[in-house]
């Protein structure tokens, strides 16, 4: 679902129609619609929880999710779906946000779970996971990028608006990959809890970043990054 020419078997070319048939097949594979991707970081959660099920949203985190849900609803867009990480904090954030977007289907996926996408450059002293974690998490997060971040399907006629509720590391990595920036720079960005990052993918494959980690809709005393 990327470059149309890559979707065609060039060996299968009619000798009689030649270039005309190729142009027709290319046109059939070209995207016509724009995809709007809204990447939402989960709200503040209980850092003392030992297991994922214990890392539930704090009272402030629930307030943040309410504010994010209200903000998304106020945009007046027809959202197609909410895809969220299967981790507790992302699932709870999604449940609160979805109250403001009735009728929008929710889909849970393990691909968007938090992790270590790639070793950051420059390195940081406060965060050094085991090397094996980069291999395990990195492959999964890269798979999430390839699976979810692409131009619209050729059959899609109207622009789409999709919400992805996940985690800071995942969002920062996706932004770098989508903009074709060195992915090793993902840790140079910082995202607030409940923030909104808006990517636009045009039919020709060009990607634009409309907003990164926006929390301007939250009162200053409700903004956190933990």
Question: How would you characterize the overall build of this protein?
Answer:
There is one protein chain. This protein folds into two domains: 30 residues, no CATH class; 191 residues, Phosphoglycerate mutase-like (Rossmann fold, 3-Layer(aba) Sandwich), CATH 3.40.50. The protein is globular. The mean pLDDT is 92. The chain is built from five helices and six strands; from the N terminus they run αβαβαβαβαββ. The chain is of the alpha/beta class. Strands 3-2-4-1-5-6 form a six-stranded mixed beta sheet, with helices on both faces.
User: What's the arrangement of strands in the largest beta sheet?
Assistant: 3-2-4-1-5-6
CATH H level, superfamily name of the largest domain: Phosphoglycerate mutase-like
What does the overall shape look like? globular
Radius of gyration over alpha carbons? 20 Å
Structural class: alpha/beta
Q: From the coordinates shown, what is the CATH architecture of the largest domain? A: 3-Layer(aba) Sandwich
Task: Look at the structure and give the CATH class of the largest domain.
Answer: Alpha Beta
The helix content is 25-40%
InterPro entries: His_Pase_superF_clade-1 (IPR013078), His_PPase_superfam (IPR029033), Mito_Ser/Thr_phosphatase (IPR051021)
Protein name: Serine/threonine-protein phosphatase PGAM5, mitochondrial
Catalytic activity: O-phospho-L-threonyl-[protein] + H2O = L-threonyl-[protein] + phosphate; O-phospho-L-seryl-[protein] + H2O = L-seryl-[protein] + phosphate
Family: Belongs to the phosphoglycerate mutase family. BPG-dependent PGAM subfamily.
């Amino acid at each position: 679902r990327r470059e149309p020419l890559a979707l065609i078997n060039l060996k299968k070319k009619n000798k009689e129609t030649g270039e005309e048939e190729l142009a027709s097949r290319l046109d059939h594979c070209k995207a016509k619609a724009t995809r709007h991707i809204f990447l939402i970081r989960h709200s503040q959660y209980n850092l003392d929880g030992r297991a994922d099920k214990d890392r539930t949203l704090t009272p402030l985190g629930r307030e943040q999710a309410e504010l994010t849900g209200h903000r998304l609803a106020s945009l007046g867009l027809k959202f197609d779906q909410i895809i969220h990480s299967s981790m507790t904090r992302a699932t709870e954030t999604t449940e609160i946000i979805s109250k403001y977007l009735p009728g929008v289907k929710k889909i849970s996926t393990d691909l968007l779970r938090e992790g270590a996408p790639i070793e950051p450059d420059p390195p940081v002293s406060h965060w050094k996971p085991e090397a094996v974690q980069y291999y395990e998490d990195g492959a999964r997060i890269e798979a999430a990028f390839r699976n979810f971040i692409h131009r619209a399907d050729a059959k899609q006629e109207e622009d789409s608006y999709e919400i992805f509720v996940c985690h800071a590391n995942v969002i920062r990595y996706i932004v770098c990959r989508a903009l074709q920036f060195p992915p090793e720079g993902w840790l140079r960005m910082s995202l607030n809890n409940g923030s909104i990052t808006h990517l636009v993918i045009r039919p020709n494959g060009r990607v634009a970043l409309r907003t990164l980690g926006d929390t301007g809709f939250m009162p200053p005393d409700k903004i956190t990054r933990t």
